[in-house]
Amino acid sequence: MSDISYTILPHRGLITVGGADRREFLQGLVSNDVMRAGTERAIWAGFLTPQGKYLHDFFMIEIGETLHLDCEGGDRLMDFGKRLSKYKLRSQIDLGIAPDLAVVALWGDGAASALGLADEAGAGRAMDGGAVYVDPRLAAAGARAILPAAKAAGILEPLGFAAATAEDYDLMRLELGLPDGSKDMAVDKTVLLEANFDALNGVDFNKGCYMGQELTARTKYRGLVKRRLMPVSVTGEAPAPGTVLMADGKEAGEMRSARGGIGIAMLRLDRLEELGKGVTLQADGAGITLRNIPWQSGIAGG
Q1: Residue pLDDT, tens place only, 15-57
Q2: Domains present along the chain, CATH in parentheses
C-alpha cells in the first residue's frame, strides 16, 4: 500500500490574476509579500477588511505569467472575486477563474520527493500544464497541486500516489492544527494572528502597507493577541462549530472544525494560563483538551 496519498479537494477553486500589474495590484491588498510568489515558490496569504478582520485566505503560485489563487470555492470564491474586482480601477490586470483545473492535496512520507520538490515549505515547480508545491504553511502538511481535473489521477498515480478522500485529508490537517478557511476563521471577526498566520508564514511584517495592515501590525507589536486557534482532542461527540467551551463555569473559547476525535478551537489565552494546559473544557457533554504540536511551541499558548 502506498505511503503517499492524493485527493481532489471539491471545496476549493481557483481565481486567476494576469496582466502586467498583477503583482503590484495584489501587493497592496494581501498580507504576504506577493513578490516572493513565482513559478517555483508558493505563498499563503490573507485578504482582510480595511479594519484588519479576516475575509479570505488563499495559496498563490504562478503558472506561466498568471498568478493562481487556490481559495475556497462556490459562493466564497465568487465573493472573493467580486471584492478583488472592486479594487481593479485602472490596474492592467485580468481577473478570471480556472474551472478546468483542480486543486489537489498530496501528503504522506515522501510526497514532496515524489513530486520532484525539496521538502521545504513553499517550494514549487511547473507540472503538466499546472503546478505543484509544498504547503507554504508547514512542510509536514505535504503538498498541493493545480492540475487539469480530467488528468490528475493519470499524472499522480504513476508517481506512486494512491487515491484517498477529502475526509482523509481533513483528518491529516486537523492532526497538524491547520485552519481550513471559514470553517475555522470567522469571517469579519478573526484577526490574522489569532489564526496563527504569524507562525505559519502567512504574513510579512516588512512588506509595507496593505489592506488591514495597521491592525495586524499593532496586534503583533503591542502584544494584543488575546486568543488563538489551538489543536484539541475531543472526548465524546464533537460540539458544533461556534459552540462555547466552558471551564469552571466560565467561557474559555469556541469550538471550530473537528473530525475523528481531534479538532481546532479558538481559545482564550488568559483562561489557558489561569487553568493550566491539562484542564478539560466542556461543551454539550463533550470534553475538550489542548494538544501540543511542535510548530506551536514558540507562540503564546503553545
Answers
A1: 999 999 999 999 999 999 999 999 999 999 999 999 999 999 9
A2: 5-175 (3.30.1360.120), 182-296 (2.40.30.160)
